[in-house]
Specification:
- Residues 508-610 form the PH domain.
- It holds the Pfam family PH.
- Residues 268-283 have a biased composition (Basic and acidic residues).
- The chain is an alpha+beta fold.
- It has a domain at 469-618: Pleckstrin-homology domain (PH domain)/Phosphotyrosine-binding domain (PTB) (PH-domain like).
- The protein is 70% helix and 8% strand.
- Strands 1, 2, 3, 4, 5, 6, 7 and 8 form an 8-stranded antiparallel sheet that branches.
- α1 (2-153) packs antiparallel against α2 and α5 (382-400) packs across α7.
Amino acid sequence: MLSKSKEAYTKPKKNNIEKNNTKSNELKADKERKELEDEDKRKYIAFLQNEKLHILSNMDALKRSIADIETQEEEISRELELEKALLSAEYESESLKLTSDETEKISIQIRINKLEQEMAEDTSIQANLQAEAKFRVEKVQQLCIQLGNELKNCSNESKQQLLTDKLHVQQNALETEKKTFEDLEFQHLEEEASKLATREELQKCLSELSHKIEVRKVQLNNLESQRNDAKTSAMKESKALSVKRLRAIDDELQNLTKSSIENGTENSEEKRSPSREDFDRISKVTHNSPIVNSQGSLGRKTIESLKEIERNRQLHLAKQGSQVISEERRRVEELKRRVQDEVRSQWEERKLNCASFNSVESGEESSNYSTGPTERARRKYVKMNAREMGAAIVDETRVLGCNLITIITSNKFYMIKDGKRTSSIEGERVSTSSIGITDGDRSRPLSQSSSEVESIGSLQTVKHRDKTKLQRPLTRYLPIKSESLDLRHHIETAGHQLSLISDVIIDTTTCSGYLSKMSKKFHHWNKRWFIFDRKRKTLSYYSDNSSKKTRGLIYFQSIEEVYVDHMNTVRSPQPSLTFIIKTSTRTYHLMAPSSEAMRVWVDVVFTGAEGYHEFDHQV
């Protein structure tokens, strides 16, 4: 009885020990599995960080190369604009000379026609006069012959004396009529010779003018061909630089695609191998445990449960990964579709604007050479779309990891190729940071810009100002296109005391002075010498007041708005002295040396804002 009770007492004790061992083994297996998962996460995070640094370094190199190419494009466009201005001025002067020569030619031709008409009338009048004089001479001559015959036949002396006197009188009359006839004929010959000489001189002048007009037409054709050649060569160079830039982006994307594919395969193998190691360690722990040797059924149950847990974990991860991949693929497709729709709509709008611009330019090309689409300009509607698209894609790449890098990079490569195809058709420039960094945040990493990209509801195009018209300051005047405007008198009547403002020089047609201009690329403030010329209808700026090196040129037709920057849209050393000139191609942020000079410049420039059509629309 004692032995039986002792055995009954020791049996539940062994069962408790076995249960405790099983629990401890399960806890050890869970702990090791968590450690393996944490180690996998750390490796994965380290890999993503290295990949991020590699992508950022490639992006910096690509940005530098694109910045160099864009600098070359800007230099080419600046040289083209300067050459355009020179050729346009020469073309305009030659056109004016040609017009004056043609007018003079027409007047000379009119004089020749009038002279020939007078000669014809004088000839007819002189012919009538000479016929009458000749008739009188013949009549007197016949009378003299008749008196001579009567005198021969007459025998009476008194009658002979009378006939002799009559004959003498008639002979004197005959001499007088002959002299009158000869004088009339001589006078007619003299007048005719004088008019013939005048006509010869006029015809000589006419031939010289005709020759001069032909020479001027040849010169104008040469200037036109030079202008077209310059435009063609600049377009070719700009296109070559654009192709070079897009090729650099294409090569970089291909490299990213290849590296992402390789890294994705390696990472998948690395992710599978820890799973195998995890399972092997769990199996090793369970097989090496004493439970297997003592209680086979319980050990097998533990192993089966651990295997089931591992299978469920792998299925859950695979399901979650496929869901994430499908979700991200759907988001990328949606982003791509939105970008393509936006680019297509912008392209249609720009094509209409280009068509209307070309129709206007064909009528005004000889007098004014607008900056137009060279570039450049130009105006860049693909910029924001490509930027936001690249930001979203890089952000998704960072979130998904290496297994999703292949899909997103391939989609990004396809979308950038689509954007490149569109930009090659329209000749516009893609943004320097087309992989996710805006102009205002070029120096920020992708991790800081991802939240901003996600906050963007829909892709928006670049706008000059997003403020409402009610927030814009009112303007006192409308643009003045009259060439007889006295600019200095106009500014003085506006209430400005120009004698007290030494920073601005104004005469009847020009206004000049130093202004600080914010650069387009690096947003630095540079001091420039500005000249507002109403004769040339341009606002140009130079490096200094020697006016030798032109840094930029703004035509009156492209100036749309001029206003003081009350909203402080840009970072300025002195916001109260900052004003804005908005053109059809870009927005210029300028800073005057004093508040009086700023107000003078705003009123001066607005007199030439011929692109301001808001009042016309309201009318």
